[in-house]
């Protein structure tokens, strides 16, 4: 199998957990959170060697211009930019990409807003998975856990079926703390990182078996799609009829031949301001700051601003984010509570 792998970049998320910088109009994957490049640009670069073809990107219609421009600026224009007329979760989004690809194409499915610090480890894991993919297995990458995280799903790693590749024993829902601690102590569980590798035809075959209405709706939407240059917009009426479900529930937990490659690759889903602080370069006081920030006698804070100057004196363990007319302040360790703010603002 010498065809290059086709990266499929999922860029449909709204990223509200990193409010106020990330908004539905400008979600986190389109922001430069960890360096000079945006999360989307870093994702595209992650799969830009001789082993990879130009990416297929699935995004929302409202972000079409931004997504296209960012990829062109990076020098990695998409081969196809699929614009979802409505959001329907990951399983239908991946179905659209698989239908746009050739049946024999191997797809590397990646969310556009994750961090992967160790690219060598990532590429080695992909190469380890390829022989099983060519035999029709659906492969996921299990992140080696370093703490009993309750915010992630887990994968129980089963018997080894090829060097570095194991059969998935089972998928585990986001656990309570005691359960997470027990799984960590057991040593045979990995975090479910949401990155996948499989042939396009194999994914569609499994989808047809386990979620046939989803496949039919995606096929109809693609048959009636509107094409402008590299942009492909599936038919809204047909795609709106598609059930909304994640790839985990619709396919991975139900299919027979599902494998996992456990890998430590410096992965982070950047799901909160605390997560960003954890992977940021810190000053001598343990602070991460960006923008016009003046911090005196300040310790272990994350301070971000894109416009106004932020001055902090004698505070510690705070998250302070100023964007436009909005300012977020909360204690470190509680950034998951941004969800409560978003709910309250909706009300």
Give a structural overview.
By secondary structure, the chain is an alpha/beta fold. It has 2 domains: 6-268, Spore Coat Polysaccharide Biosynthesis Protein SpsA, Chain A, CATH 3.90.550.10; 273-346, no CATH class. The protein is 31% helix and 29% strand. It is built from 11 helices and 19 strands. The strands form 4 sheets. The chain has a 5-stranded mixed barrel with strand order 6-9-7-8-12. It has a 4-stranded mixed β-sheet with strand order 14-16-18-19, with helices on one face. A two-stranded antiparallel sheet has the order 5-13. The chain starts with 5 loop residues before the first strand and ends with a helix.
Class of the largest domain, according to the CATH hierarchy?
A: Alpha Beta
Q: Give, in spatial order, the strands making up the sheet with the most strands.
A: 6-9-7-8-12
Q: Averaging pLDDT over every residue, what do you get? A: 94
Give the % helix: 25-40%
Question: Segments where pLDDT lies below 50 for 5+ residues?
Answer: none
Number of domain modules: 2
Beta content: 25-35%
CATH homologous superfamily annotation of the largest domain: Spore Coat Polysaccharide Biosynthesis Protein SpsA, Chain A
Compute the number of strand runs: 19
Can you tell me the overall shape?
globular
CATH fold-level name of the largest domain? Spore Coat Polysaccharide Biosynthesis Protein SpsA, Chain A
The biggest beta sheet reads: 5 strands, mixed, barrel
Using the CA coordinates, give the radius of gyration. 20 Å
Task: State the separation between the terminal residues, measured CA to CA.
Answer: 53 Å
The assigned structural class equals: alpha/beta
Q: What's the SSE pattern?
A: EHEHEHEEHEEEHEHHEEHHEEHEEEEEEH
Distinct helical segment count:
11
CATH architecture of the largest domain: Alpha-Beta Complex
């Amino acid at each position: 199998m010498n065809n290059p792998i086709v990266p499929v970049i999922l860029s449909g998320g709204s990223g509200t957990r990193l409010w106020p910088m990330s908004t539905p109009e400008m979600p986190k994957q389109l922001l430069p959170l960890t360096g000079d490049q945006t999360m989307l640009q870093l994702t595209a670069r992650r799969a830009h060697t001789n082993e990879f073809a130009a990416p297929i990107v699935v995004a929302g219609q409202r972000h079409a211009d931004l997504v296209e421009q960012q990829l062109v600026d990076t020098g990695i224009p998409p081969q196809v930019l699929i614009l979802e007329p409505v959001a329907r979760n990951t399983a239908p989004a991946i179905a659209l990409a698989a239908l746009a690809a050739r049946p024999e194409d191997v797809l590397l499915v990646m969310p556009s807003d994750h961090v992967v610090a160790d690219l060598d480890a990532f590429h080695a894991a992909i190469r380890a998975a390829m022989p099983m993919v060519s035999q029709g297995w659906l492969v996921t990458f299990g992140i080696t856990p370093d703490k009993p995280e309750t915010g992630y799903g887990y994968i129980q790693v089963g018997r080894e079926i090829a060097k570095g590749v194991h059969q998935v024993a089972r998928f585990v829902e986001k656990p309570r703390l005691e359960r997470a601690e027990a799984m960590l102590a057991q040593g045979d569980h990995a975090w479910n990182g949401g990155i996948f590798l499989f042939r396009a035809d194999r994914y569609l075959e499994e989808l047809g078996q386990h979620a046939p209405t989803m496949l039919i709706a995606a096929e109809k939407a693609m048959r009636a799609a509107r094409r402008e240059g590299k942009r492909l917009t599936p038919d809204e009426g047909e795609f709106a009829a598609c059930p909304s479900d994640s790839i985990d529930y619709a396919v991975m937990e139900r299919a027979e031949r599902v494998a996992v490659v456990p890998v430590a690759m410096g992965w982070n889903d950047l799901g909160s301001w605390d997560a960003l602080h954890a992977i940021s370069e810190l000053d001598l006081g343990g602070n991460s700051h960006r923008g016009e920030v003046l911090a005196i006698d300040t310790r272990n804070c994350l301070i971000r601003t894109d416009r106004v100057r932020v001055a902090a004196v004698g505070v510690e363990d705070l998250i302070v984010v100023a964007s436009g007319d909005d300012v977020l302040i909360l204690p470190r360790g509680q950034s998951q509570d941004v969800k409560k703010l978003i709910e309250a603002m909706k009300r």
